[in-house]
Amino acid sequence: MNPGSFSAIFLDAFLINNFVLALFLGICPFLGVSGKVKTAGNMGMAVTFVMLVSSLCAFGLNHLLVKFELEFLRLICFIAVIASAVQLVEMAIKRFSPTLFRALGIFLPLITTNCAILGLALFQTAREYSFVQCLAFSLGAGAGFSLALLLMAGLREKLELADLPGLARGAALSLILAGMLSLAFMGFAGLGG
Amino acid sequence: MSAPEKMNLQTFTQGLWKENPVFVMMLGLCPVLAVTNTAMNALAMGLATTFVLICSGFLVSLLRKVIPKQVRIASYIIIIATFVTMADYLIQAISLEVYQALGAFIQLIVVNCIILGRAEAYASKNGPLKAVVNATGMGLGFTFALLCLGVVREVLGGGTLFGMQVMPDRFQPWSIFVLPPGGFFVLAFWLMLFAAFEERKQKKGVTA
Question: What are phi and psi of B161, to 5 degrees?
Fold first, then answer.
């Protein structure tokens, strides 16, 4: 497979270099919203959408910055773009699905400080992706984030009633689960060839 | 904490142990897991974050009466982003090697919830001096946590510490510890250790 092709980039961001389990981006919502499968799915969709919008905006913005030689403003501009994209999604969800809006709660505005999204914008700039490549990258990253979140939520729902030693309950258990998932995902290394 | 409280030792030590940002509040976990594969990276990351924490805490606290309430979060983020850009160029100037090892994670300090959390919860309500002292404590607590992970991962995963060999030659490195899953496991191990410690302390308190 050509490493620059749409499918290769998608696969890389989706499985091989999964944003959560291999690059450690977006750990906070990963541990915070993975209690129930349904909320996790919705959160995944919201994050994917914000990723798509902010990735494409960041792509355009970066061209503008390079043209005017203002690269040192990159970070500030990206953050502003992401914050507005999140605001947009928040308004859209509030308008179309008030139930989902309530279910996501505080984690919706917190997408702004989700490092997966800023990381995505920074990585695509560093790797000098074209427009189509950015599209593949953001879709893959979003799908990968959703997958990790769903897997984690499924595991945690199953373990809710398990009899565990007191020390391992809570955060430590989630981290051990995440470690095992991460081990499993290492199996995808080399998939892209 | 209420605003008019006087500055004392606790302003400083709060972040070191009792409200340690990583082990107690579970904030800013992304860099904690991502850049702690060697102790050196952990130290550099901790110091960079401390620098941003102190500077942004100071500026936010100075401007706390000027910034309108409605746009405060956006203003804080801009302030933080400014200092992160400075830290980014600083590290690049001091050590290119560390800069390349940390990669995008330096710029990702912007979205570290510890910094925004401190700006919102502490610096915006207290004077500049207190904000700086508190931020220093928090920053050192964060660095301490990063080092906890970094040291364990480097010694077990590579047999070295800050690049020097500490394990005997016969030691076979457990390379899983420098790989991503190792980060999760080591952090889980530290959390359990701290939980055990707290539990013992509480039991002692009951019997005494």
Answer: -140, 120
Crossing angle, helix B180-207 and helix A171-186, to 10 degrees? 160
ipTM exceeding the 0.90 mark: no
If you search the block for the tokens 């913005």, which residue do you land on? Answer: A61
Q: Is A193 on the interface with B (CB under 8 A)?
A: no
Output b/e per residue, A137-154; b: 16+ Cβ within 10 A.
Answer: bbbbbbbbbbbbbbbbbe
3-state helix, strand, coil in chain B (%, to 5): 70, 0, 25
Interface of B with A in 39-98 (CB under 8 A): 74, 77-78, 81-82, 84-85, 88-89
Nearest CA-CA distance, residue B180 and chain A, Å: 6
**Residues A57, A192: Cα–Cα separation, whole Å:** 28
Per-residue confidence (pLDDT) for residue A92, from 0 to 100? 84
pLDDT digits (tens, 9 = 90+) for B134-163: 899 999 999 999 999 999 998 888 888 887
What the block records as the tokens of A71 is: 């690269």
What is the token pair recorded at B203? 């039991």
The tens digit of pLDDT for each residue in B149-203 reads: 999 998 888 888 887 787 777 788 888 888 888 889 999 888 888 888 888 888 8
A19 touches chain B (CB under 8 A): no
Closest approach of B121 to chain A, Cα-based (Å) = 16
Which 8-state DSSP code applies to residue B7?
P
Whole-model pTM: value is 0.84
